[in-house]
Amino acid sequence: MVDFSHTFPAARGVQSGRPCYVAMCPMRLVPKIFIFDSQEVPPELRAQRTLNRTRVPEIASYLVENPTNYTLSAITASIDAQVTFEPSTDTGLGQNLGLLSIPMDAKILINDGQHRREAIIQAIEQNPELGYDNIPVLFFIDAGLKRSQQMFADLNKHAVRPSDSISTLYDHRDAIAEMARNVANQVTVFSRLTEMEKSSISNRSSKLFTLSAIKNATKTLLQKRKGDLITKEEQELAIDFWNSVAANMADWQLALEKKVATSELREQYVHAHGVMLQAIGNIGAELLYKPKPQWKNILERLQHIDWSRANNEWEGRAMHHGRISKARASVVLTGNYVKQQLGIALTDSEHEYEKALK
Prior knowledge:
This is DNA sulfur modification protein DndB. By secondary structure, this protein is an alpha/beta fold. The protein has helices spanning 30-33, 56-65, 114-126, 145-157, 164-170, 175-186, 188-193, 211-221, 232-247, 250-256, 262-268, 274-287, 292-299, 328-342, 348-357; strands at 5-15, 18-26, 34-35, 75-79, 84-87, 97-103, 108-112, 134-141, 194-195, 209-210, 319-320, 323-324. The protein folds into 2 domains: 5-157, no CATH class; 164-357, no CATH class.
C-alpha cells in the first residue's frame, strides 16, 4: 500500500509552526476517505463529539433542494501518516502550490465536519450528480490524540451562532424570513424602530423591536410553520394587522415621532418588549377569522389598556419579580390579560393557565 496514494491538487501553508494543506475533494470520495468513528469509543479516547443524527437530514435536504445554489464550509481533518507534497513547476507562485499525496493506508480523521460528511452521503444517494462537486478540506498532520482533542476544542471554542435577527435578514430561501422583512419594511412603526441585526436591544439603542420578534409574532399571527408558503394576500393582511395595532399604541407613535426615548419605554412599559408582540400575534390569529371592520374595532380598545409596569396586573404575566419574562407561560398569561381588556373570551387552555396563576 506504500506505493498507492490519494493525490490532490493542494496549497501548502503553515499554522502554529506545523504544515497544513488545503485541497478540493470530490464529494463522492468523502465517505470513502474520511473516517468518523466516535459512537462506541469513550469521550476521553476520541477527538470528536458523537454524531447528532437529527442534524444530518436537514443538511442533506439543503444540498438536494439547492444543487446549484448551496454553500458548504471546509472539512478539517488529521492525517496519521507521512505525506508528500510535490510543488508545481512554472506556476510563478513559488513552492506552495502542488500535489499532495496521502498513503491509502493512512487514517484521515475528521476533526470538524462530521455532520457534513454524513449529509453528503445521504445527499449523493438522492442526487448522484452532487458527487462530482467539490468540498474544501484543510489537512493537518496528526500529532496524537491530545493534539486532536485540542484542535476540536479550538475549532469550536469561538464558533458563535448568528442571531435570529440577522439570519432572518439574510435568508432569502425561507418564506417566513421574507415575510418578516416585508412586514418590518412596510409597517411604518417597524420600519423606523426595528433592530435588524441583533435579537436583543441594548439600553442605549434607539430601536424598539427586533426583526426576530417581528418574525415570530407574525408567524404566530398567520399560523405558519417553517417551510410553509406565504401568499401575497397573507403578507398584506399581516401588514394591515400590525399597522392597525400600531395605530392604537400611542407610545409607539410618540417613539416614531421621537417625542419619547425608546429606552424610557422599555424601562417603564411592557408593550415595548417581545413578550407583548408575541402575545398580540397570538390574539391576532383568532381575530383574523372575523371580518376586517370587526377586528379593527376590537383593536381600538388597545388604547385603553394600562401598559405601565406599575400596573400590578402584569406581575406573574409579562413580568416576574419586576423583570420581563419571555417564557411560553408568560406569553399566554400576558395575552390572557390583553384579551380580557379587549372583550375576547379565553380558550379552555388559557383558562387553565389562569387557574395556575391564581
